[in-house]
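re: ur msg from earlier - yeah i can do the glycinamide ribonucleotide complex, just paste it... oh wait u already did. ok heres what im feeding in:
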Amino acid sequence: MAVLASGRGSNFKALAERSQDRAFPAEVACLITDQRAAGAVSVAESFNIPWFWVDAGERRGRLTADAESEIVARCESAGARLVLLAGFMRILESGEGKLLDRFSGRVINIHPSLLPSFKGLQAQRQALEYGVKVAGCSAHFVDASVDGGPIILQSAIAVHDDDTAESLAARILGEEHAVVVRAVELFALGKLKIDGRRVLGTE
Ligand code: GAR
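and the outut:
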């Protein structure tokens, strides 16, 4: 798989670690980042995983056409059969030749909320401020809707009275690492079947 990340890279690290086990059915072919100074880059270097920085431009939240073409080319030349968004803070758009077109049904994202609640940025803070008692994370296939594609796996945790956005995010992150690894494993084993909005084969 190719991993796309913009930040710290802890989900990427969880995958890189798990992929070292020969029995795990997937491996990370490369990291692509839009942030040269991202922690994810250090993770790639520590695991000897090739990484590439793509100049994604200033249009925050989106990719330039050139950046998108470069990402597609990097994923294809790395031989990736799956693209994993692990804290990649840009929205992918639909269109011919774009990533979602070339890797249709093969792009997975990890999001720190129980979708369809709390899409977008700072999902953990949104959950805390809304007052939900149960929070969590979701791995889902990516389509052109933001955080709206078919859900593969979710994991829930309780929200405590003394939680802050940071403490809640830290607990959710622990769940993310397990969920992202399992979603990739199920995908690589060919178990997942998309049936409309439902993803079957996750039990
Ligand atoms: C994770 O919490 C991930 O779910 C979130 O960014 C963080 C990246 O952490 N992604 C989104 O909010 C995307 N909408 P990491 O760099 O340590 O993996």
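cool cool. The chain is about 35% helix and 20% strand. ping me if u need the other ligands too
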